[in-house]
Amino acid sequence: MVNYKKVSCPNCGALIEDIDRFAAMAVCEYCGGAMVWQDDAVLAMGDMAILVEYPTPLYLHATGQVRGKRFEVAGRVRYRYAKGFWDEWYLAFEDGSYGWIAEDEYEFSFERAVRGPVQIPAYSQVSPGGQLVVEGKFVIVDEKDVAYLEGAEGSLPWVLTKDRQFPYVEASQGDYMVTIEYTEGAPEVFVGEWVDVGEIKLDYPKDDQEDGSGWSDA
Amino acid sequence: MSDKILQCLYCQKEVDVANIPVGHSRCPHCGKVLPMKRLQELRQPDVAPPPIPGFGNGPDPAAPIQSPSQPQVQPGVDASQPPPGQGVPPRTPPKRKLIKRQVSAKPKNIKCTNCGAPIEIKNEAMAEMVSCSYCGSVLDLNSPDYKVLRKVLLEKRPASPLPLGSRGSLKGIEWEVIGRVRMLEEGIYSWDEFLLFNPQNGYAWLVLEDGHWTYMRKGKNKPAFNPRWCSLGDKFSHYGRNFQVVDKAQAQITYIEGEFTYQAMVGDKVDYLDAVSPPLMLSAEWTEQELEWLSGEYVTPETIAHAFQVKNMPIPVGVARNQPYQRAAWRKQVTIASLIFAGLFLIMLIGPCVTPRKVANFSVSADQYLNKNQPYLSQPINFTKPTVVKLKLEAPLSNSWIFMDINVIDASNQTVVGLGKEMAYYSGSDWSEGSRSASAAFKIDKAGEYRLSFSGDAGSGTSGGPRRETVNVTVYKGAMLYRYFIIMAIICLFFPLVEFIRFSSYQGKRVGDLNDDDD
Question: Given CB atoms, is A148 within the 8 Å cutoff of chain B?
Fold first, then answer.
């Protein structure tokens, strides 16, 4: 069940009714101001960049189903790296759990955080094409770079600061894929599966273009 | 009327659940069974929609105008109610968010920082770099003021069959050519890569090399190995297909223009590997940061020419590495038919179809066939119609030989067939050669009685006298001459052989063939 809390944006004063109850941070959809909760107080934390849209089927507060689980999109984070960016959609599931769908250039993966300690080589020891073992599975490293936070919207489980920057590694093998974020402290490991865009079934898909070709001038 | 209304799936009339007696589940209007699950739900008084203001309960004041692409509301199911057992109710997007909702990439018009000419960016969110089509400057779209990265002289633009802005449908997607890269390997091999874009489907590549086209998209299911450690000729299996590595090298960008999702410059080097399983191709590119696989498929020049209305199509040279072998339909049909006939003839050879019938069996003793004065004459054998006769001679030879002169004599004592047959058999403790039997076949053209005459010679060892073995003769009629079937089978195999030679020479013409690379 998705639970919401209401808050008045500390930046612009707009009433926002649909912030996830357990959010540690939220972005006002009117002014783009970020807010964090400290004890019971809501504090403004500066502006977040407005995210430029691109052709994705997902949107904030979209409801639907993926891999047999119903969800509502609670938030989104965009990370940028040298060759582009990727989005991470924060999903609230009906059973009270949370998950992520990462979207990178029209490819989607359904991810969950790996709990407990995982043996991960240091960032400097990883190179694309090399092998890693995560949860007993072999994966091939696809990508290694440094990402920084470009922007966010909606509710988020952590407090993200604008200068958040971290090295990361992406690896995959068949349908199984791994993302390692080398944050301060222990690296955070996410494992996931590729999902076909058709597997993300939204209750209300976005409006289609008139002629279906995608070109508005066609 | 209570607020618990159910719509009958059959007559579409609204039914007040309160009016249906407990234990009944039929529509009072038409008598058909009502949707059970929904009925049970409505009967339970305490299942209330989630108490969240603004959605779920009743009409949402901010509900968007229904667009035709939105799912049709199922009869009997109120979309504003949570579906049974689902904790996340379908949520109509509030109206204010409609502004943001879009499926297609957003174009953006900017002005060239160098010359001020207008440039349309097709995919603002992802474009990292664009070149101005007027002055050729390359702009960094990641910098706030679109810094000029490099000035390219347009005079250097190599001729291209697909100018930027061309549109064409491939695989059901209407693509626009938005970028072009020319690559050079070892200073000799050159090819073009065209970046295609569609606002709903993202990106794809068309690779043009020696007039051959390959359509490529980013591959999700990558082969599980490091292409760095592969070498030419390596084979691997991927999704049930066998691929062979046909190229692995470093290529350099010699020309680049258009809009790209990454920043690349003339002179940049790319490590890559190509593996083919015609018509498919897998391509890997890697840098220190990234390993990317693309999967592609051969596309005929005619398809490209038709899709993009290309006039100056380059003529294909040789056979592309991933070009499938194609031949006229009749060639394939004739090959298959020939193979089937050849197979049938070979099956006939095994012979269950025509079994020769035994008509006589007799023995010829050594005295009889070694008699130089008078050959042994068999009893008359009656053939009621023309036939092929088969003779089988057997003798218990042991390091000995028998040569037999056989004549077929008709009723008027004329010899119609004369033939000679030799049997020889030698053996040692662990070897043997020759045979203890021989067979001969001949044709009888006319029905009638025939007799066989036998006279012969025999010997043993290297120069010993005859061992005087008795020869057993069996006569069959209706035999089949196998050699004709063998000849037919060979004739039938001729065309498939020609086809195989054609195929082999086609394979030999493949561009970048491994044998060429070894030179």
Answer: no
Cα separation, B78 vs B63, whole angstroms: 14
Contact A127 B288 (CB under 8 A): yes
How many Å separate Cα A47 from the centre of its chain? Answer: 19
The kind and range of the H/E element at B272 are strand B269-277
Q: Which of residues 50-109 of A touch B (CB under 8 A)?
A: 52-55, 57, 59-64, 70-72, 82-85, 92-95, 105-107
Q: Residue with structure tokens 């008078």?
A: B374
pLDDT of B390: 86
Q: Cα–Cα distance between A97 and B108 in angstroms, integer? A: 39
Give me the amino acid identity at A176. Y
What integer pLDDT is reported at residue B305 of this predicted model?
92
Could you read off the pLDDT of A77-104 as tens digits, one per residue?
999 887 778 899 999 988 888 889 999 8
Is the pLDDT assigned to residue B300 strictly greater than 60? yes
Round to whole Å and give the CA distance between B353 and B434: 29
pTM: predicted TM-score of the whole model, two decimal places:
0.61
The 3-class secondary structure across B192-236, one letter per residue, is EEEEEEECCCEEEEEEEECCEEEEEEECCCCCCCCHHHCCCCCEE
* A129 at B interface, C-beta within 8 A: yes
Q: Which amino acid is at A99?
A: G
Helix (H, G, I), strand (E, B) or coil at B469: coil
Assign B63 to helix, strand or coil. coil
User: Closest Cα partner for B137 from B157, B115, B165, B162?
Assistant: B115
Other CB atoms within 10 Å distance of the CB of residue B184:
14
What is chain A's Cα-based Rg?
Answer: 18
Beta strand A15-20 with B387-394: parallel, antiparallel or unpaired?
A: unpaired
For A152, list phi and psi in degrees, rounded to 5: -155, 160
More confident call, B99 vs B28? B28
CB-based contacts of B117, cutoff 8 Å, min separation 6: B111, B132, B133, B134, B135
Please state which of the ranges A3-7, A65-69, B429-433 shows the lowest mean pLDDT: A3-7
Give pLDDT tens digits for B66-103: 334 444 444 444 444 444 445 666 666 544 343 344 45
Cα A51 to Cα A59: distance, rounded to the nearest angstrom = 12
Q: Which chain A positions have a beta carbon within 8 Å of B222's beta carbon?
A: 140, 142, 172-173
pLDDT tens-digit series, residues A109-155: 898 888 777 778 888 888 888 888 888 888 889 888 899 888 888 99
